[in-house]
Amino acid sequence: MTAQIIDGKMIAEQVRKEVGEEVAKLVAAGKPKPGLATVLVGENPASKVYVSSKQKACAELGMESFGFHLSEDATQDEVEGLVRELNADPRVNGILVQLPLPSHLDEESVLRSISLEKDVDGFHPINIGRLAQKGRDPLFVPCTPLGCMVMLEKIGVKLEGTNAVVLGRSNIVGMPMALLLVRANATVTICHSRTKDLPGVVRSADVLIAAVGRPRMVRGDWVKPGAVVIDVGINRIDDPTHPKGSRLVGDVYFEEVKEVAGAITPVPGGVGPMTIAMLMKNTLHAAILANGPA
Ligand code: GUN
């Protein structure tokens, strides 16, 4: 059996189109354009690429973006001072502080300084805390796990009662992903570097989310036949046959796993495009919270 390939690019395009249409309605109703502020600290090359893609997406959907770039040695007060100014700026509906921050900065304190109503990344401790609690709802859900949920929904996966396995426990993906799956009534196992018999645990998954950052770690014989596999990994590996000498792969050994799984996301073109689409959706939601609907 060969798996259904889940086209994240196409699903993200649908989400972006819907968001763009909602933005146009807001503007036609006399509301201000939704605005996203991005805060980049330091010179991490991958972060620079991600931030510029987020700004480009804003422009494409008719939103404003406000880019701020602080030096690698910015102080805690400088970063939090900038966030406080953005909290007070009515043109700014969403604030995104690109992670990781340089190691001398206290990340939790920076994330806590963002207004809850502008926390479009959903990383504020109160938003994450609400995500973890029964009967409470966060104002925003982190973009990558939310994008994974939208993909599962779009291909018609019914999560209730399934065994879901999340590989990785990061604050950005693994942990909020596991919380979302619990909220969808899946039975969730979180695996990490100390998990015993990792292949055996992964083999129990009806739905597998791989988010460990280890190139092609999940092999074909780790996967239950027919399982749905969402690959969040984006890893660059050497490949002399490729014009650039390298290429991107996920955390899943795609060529093997696609022969076993029922459905699988490719890398690139799977989860990646969904993250930005969900950020745009969260920013639209923040603008509606601030200025009301169209
Ligand atoms: N670094 C990697 N992913 C993300 C994300 O979704 N948001 C932010 N702010 N930083 C990231």
What would you say about this model in short?
The chain has 294 residues and is an alpha/beta fold. It has helices spanning 8-28, 45-60, 76-88, 107-113, 125-132, 143-154, 174-183, 198-203, 254-257, 271-291, and strands spanning 4-5, 35-41, 64-70, 94-97, 163-167, 187-191, 207-210, 228-231, 235-238, 246-249, 263-264.
What spatial order of strands do you see in the largest sheet?
A: 1-11-8-7-5-6
The number of domains? 2
Q: Which percent range describes the beta-strand content? A: 15-25%
Ligands present = guanine
Cα(first) to Cα(last) distance is: 47 Å
CATH topology of the largest domain: Rossmann fold
- Report the order of strands and helices: EHEHEHEHHHEHEHEEEEHEH
Structural class computed from helices and strand pairing: alpha/beta
Query: Outline, from the CA principal axes?
Result: globular
